[in-house]
Predict the 3D structure of the following.
Amino acid sequence: MKKKLVVANWKMNPESLSEAEKLFEGVKKITTRLKNVQTVIIPPFVYLPALTKKYKGNKISFGAQNVFFESNGSYTGEISIPMLEDMKVDYVIVGHSERRSMGESNEIVHKKIKAVLSSGLVAILCIGEKERDSSADYLSFLKEELVVALRLIPKTQLKNLVVAYEPLWTIGKTEDEAMKSEQVHEMVIFIRKILAERFGKRVAMSVPVLYGGSVEPGNAKDLIKEGEISGFLVGHASLNKDDFNEILKIVNT
Ligand code: PGA
């Protein structure tokens, strides 16, 4: 059985390195016992050097919340792929809705995906509609996000791709407002269908598809059992060690 992936997106939290270390310690213990889950912690950039140095060789992998598509140069405030590789980071989130809402277009997401997939890093490509409409325009919106991001990407590079489906209307809410497992399952089928049109069925089935949006201990079981997903991208619940450990345990069973 392929391991499930549980990704903790800490976003712009916590406020100090000592709190970040404490949170990491709180998750580290349980991960040594998980056989069916690969845990990925994605802290803010500034904590990566200390955390990767201290905890390297652990069962937990590290990721970054964003990346720039050029390797070096005059790009104030940006972080490049070689820098992340030097930090022993394995995963990078591309096109999170919170970045898109700050101006990241499908074109920029494409440039980033292209750069990440030609490196050794795994890209976690986030897609998700803002809202649902009765004429189902949101499906074209999602298709566009996926198709543009993966334009001209060779099929062989898809082994380093993870798609995270995160509908914006479910992010940062409570478990009652998250998507139901049947809806998630439908979306997984939709995403794989689009991937299959471009890359063929075999490749489409091999790309892990995660769900994100108010995953909490209370809804994780249904989503993982019935949603046909490869794992979760967890936001606020990953900042509480007990909640996150509970989610990991649920996914592991
Ligand atoms: P949430 O965030 O779990 O707090 O809804 C998920 C995300 O934005 O990645």
Summary: The longest strand covers residues 4-9. Residues 9, 166, 171-172, 212-215, 233-237 surround 2-phosphoglycolic acid (CB under 6 Å).
